[in-house]
């Protein structure tokens, strides 16, 4: 008769990336420390920066946090923010698009000329303008993905060509004023329910409910698949933090004119794009191509189509952003999309946390980044700073974001997570 004692089988090794962190305050502190050590800072630097910016300008002006000023900021971010959203898509591939400012200008010029000078229905004119922008993106994507021309050169050529087309479309008069109370004009001036405060509260409640539902569904799916999932307590905490933020925003908007249409459309597009990137196979393909072209190709991904489609999306968003800029300035002209529009969009994406090296970032980066830039611009305008000072400060903030991105990437590589 055997007297051998049965041995307990050795548990299989667990991938440390799948470890479930401890619950409670200690768990949050542990996870926060781990992220700092591995360079995963997320949106923390941007949020801290926004708080500091708001505190400084409120101290200097005494009116920066007034409801009317905050409402104006939420309106002004829509145009450049949509262009920055398109930039995020391109940066996720590890590429760049220098043509987006010109694409925005052409879209506004074409839509305005068709509606004002040619008498085309304004809705149809806007649709034609945006479709034209998407076609421009398809041209860039074709030469980049099919012919093999570097994206920098393709989009540089596009920037020059579309700028010339914008000039030609506008014609000798140089400016096309928006139709009074028309589609383009209302993009910037319309408030939901003509200023009825109930719309801001409804939007806030809807945002909280959708976020909570998304978190719960995600946790349930991960648990069903045997993967670590967020506990209910953490979901409740995250939802509570979001609820405080959006309810405060709704309250401040209602102290002025209510919920602005530009904010609704901008946040809605960012939310839809974020869902596509994080919840669909197409979004995962974008991240895969940005993380490594050859690996993506061997995984069966149509790299050429992903690249082309991303440039189409970015151009379409830039075109829509151009319409908002035309609405804000009251007209489409030859300079729309020029100046620092493109650089601000790229800066917003990078400042918000999207990596210049591809494969890492979120669409919410565009929202956070453009909030930082617009807050700086608005604050400096309120203290009557020279435009040269604005450029220098914006450049310094962009450099800081790029340095932080580089250091984060190096830290992640050294910790085996890059």
TrEMBL record:
The chain crosses the membrane at residues 41-61, 73-93, 100-117, 123-144, 197-214, 235-253, 259-277, 304-326, 338-357, 364-383, 389-407. The keyword Membrane applies. One of its GO terms (cellular component) is plasma membrane. Keywords: Cell inner membrane, Cell membrane, Membrane, Sugar transport, Transmembrane, Transmembrane helix, Transport. InterPro entries: ABC_transp_permease. It is a multi-pass membrane protein. The keyword Phosphoprotein does not apply. GO terms for molecular function: transmembrane transporter activity. It comes from the Bacteria. CDD domains: TM_PBP1_transp_AraH_like. Pfam families: BPD_transp_2. Its main location: membrane. It is found in: Cell membrane. Coiled coil: none annotated. PANTHER family: ABC TRANSPORTER PERMEASE PROTEIN YPHD-RELATED-RELATED, XYLOSE TRANSPORT SYSTEM PERMEASE PROTEIN XYLH. Part of the binding-protein-dependent transport system for D-xylose. Probably responsible for the translocation of the substrate across the membrane. This is Xylose transport system permease protein XylH.
